[in-house]
Design a protein that fits this description.
The chain is built from ten helices and no strands. It has helices at 10-32, 35-42, 46-53, 56-63, 70-78, 85-98, 100-115, 117-139, 143-162, 173-189. The chain has two domains: 10-63, Homeodomain-like (Arc Repressor Mutant, subunit A, Orthogonal Bundle), CATH 1.10.10; 70-189, Tetracycline Repressor, domain 2, CATH 1.10.357.10. It is an all-alpha fold.
């Protein structure tokens, strides 16, 4: 049985928590890994997990090197008029992809999920639980429409950033927002 309590150093403790989190997320998926289980696996008190990361979402985001806190992303999408959700979402998505550190992290995540089913399972559970379900609930949108939004954005990322199909790859940020945001907004507005 793992010993709980403080570890010798902050860096070692943080890394032990991340290693335990990666292992548990990999074995049990996002929903099946709890803060308490991560702490037990790392041999620390659950309060230390909260101290270093704040939430399970943040542990996951850090463990997979995701570029943004999902809570902040959801709040930014929902902060403002419903009629502008599509524009805010596309603008935020582009901004995240166009920030060098975020772009590198996104490419790392794409590589991981395209090569291992374990990483794909982890990311799928996270996207569903930390992002899509919360957006669907907050906007009162059926889950299928929210996954339609996700499909649009993943397609945009593939064409613009991964495959780099012209003219979309070099189009101005605002032109892309103007092109994609109305389609995303339709998913929000459909009755």
């Amino acid at each position: 049985m793992a010993r709980t309590g403080r570890r010798p150093g902050q860096t070692e403790t943080r890394e032990a928590i991340l290693a335990a989190a990666r292992d548990l997320f990999g074995r049990n998926g996002y929903e099946g890994a709890t803060i308490r289980a991560i702490a037990a696996e790392a041999g620390v008190n659950p309060a230390l997990v909260h101290h270093f990361f704040g939430s399970k979402d943040q542990v996951f985001a850090t463990a997979l090197h995701l570029p943004a806190d999902p809570g902040v992303v959801v709040a930014a999408i929902l902060d403002g008029p419903r009629a502008e959700v599509g524009e805010r979402l596309v603008r935020l998505f582009l901004t995240l992809w166009e920030t060098p550190a975020s772009r590198d992290a996104f490419f790392g995540v794409l590589r991981s999920v395209s090569t291992t089913e374990q990483a794909a399972d982890m990311l799928r559970g996270f996207i569903q639980g930390a992002l899509l379900d919360k957006i669907a609930d907050a906007l009162d949108i059926p889950p299928l429409r929210v996954t339609g939004i996700a499909a649009h954005l993943v397609g945009l990322a593939m064409v613009r950033y991964v495959v780099q199909v012209e003219p979309l790859a070099r189009a101005a940020h605002e032109d892309v927002v103007g092109l994609i945001a109305p389609a995303v907004q339709q998913y929000v507005d459909q009755a």
